[in-house]
Amino acid sequence: MPGNKQKRSGATWHGKAIALAAIVLAAILSDLLYDRLGQRSAVVEASAGSLRLDLTRELNGKFFENAIVCRRQEDDAPIQHDALYGCSGRTHMLTPPRNTDEQVGRENVNLTLPAGTSILLSARPGLVRLSVISVPDAYADSDAARLVGGAIILDESAIPAFGTLTMTGRAVIGAGQSQTDLLAVTQGGYQFSGWTPTALLDGQWRMLRNGALLSGSTVYFPGRDSDAEGPFGQPVAQTRLTVSVPDPATSLLQVTAISAEGPMALKIFYFSTEPLTVRPSITDVLLADPILTFLATLILGLIAIYEFLRSRD
């Protein structure tokens, strides 16, 4: 009967619509759950002119050779009216020269900074500067406190011995919009890795997503439970960092930042734009899984063969 056929056709259409809606809803919920709970890690490699960092672990024993040091003066020290290397002569003093032929002196520094110290590492051609912004109140009388408002300064003769600086803290890579005297990221990239269903069998994480950082960006890992604030007041997650200066001629910082494992994302800021949040999706997870990819290819191949054979009949 035509009426029965129309009813069956309508019921079939409604059933397909409900099934499609259920699939879409399940996909959205899966992605939201992965955003909040999915275990993953991210790595950022960037060339930048600045790095802001709140140490969450002590920086212990980093050796700087032939450095120029800007320290807070003792109360009875004479006031100097010059400001070489940005070191205020009214409150701070540079390493004293060893002889009258030198404008400033140099020294070998074995730097130790406590957890909770805020620093700014900046670079420009021929000059790398590690500025100490603040130290915890418990270290107000320490040698580190004398560096507050001052810096460890490396000029072109000392930069080649910079080596590698390893730190752990809440970091922002690249200068912000208001820091016009510092450089943002000039180039770089990021990579996310994490579990896929196959990890239940072999325990291996796989690359989920990668991409490039454009010149002029500022990046950091946002943290959901952090007191440290990055650009625009968002919290910043803990990061493990290694910093080097591979080309003394440009003095750009080569920064490698590795996030903790967890529901991590990456924030990217460009000048006068809304921040971008980058993270892998549940689709990236499924596409990165080798067994699921093989099974999907096999099933699609079998469907294609079946449709071909049926068309011949």
Describe this structure in words.
Helices cover 22% and strands 35% of the residues. The mean pLDDT is 83. The protein is built from 4 helices and 16 strands. The chain has one domain. A hairpin with a 6-residue loop joins strand 15 and strand 16. Strands 1, 2, 3, 4, 5, 6, 7, 8, 9, 10, 11, 13 and 14 form a 13-stranded antiparallel beta sheet that branches. A 3-stranded antiparallel beta sheet has the order 12-15-16, with no helix packed on it. The two termini are 28 Å apart. The chain has 313 residues and is α+β, with helices and mostly antiparallel strands.
- Sketch the topology as an H/E string, one letter per element: HEEEEEEEEEEHEEEEEEHH
The percentage helix is 10-25%
**C-alpha Rg (nearest Å):** 28 Å
Number of strands: 16
Poorly predicted tracts of residues: none
Largest sheet: 13 strands, antiparallel
Shape by Cα distribution: elongated
Q: Beta-strand percentage?
A: 35-45%
SS summary, helix count: 4
Our measurement of the CA-to-CA distance between the termini, rounded to an integer number of angstroms, reads 28 Å
Query: What average pLDDT do the residues reach?
Result: 83
User: How many structurally independent domains?
Assistant: 1
Which structural class best describes the helix and strand composition? alpha+beta
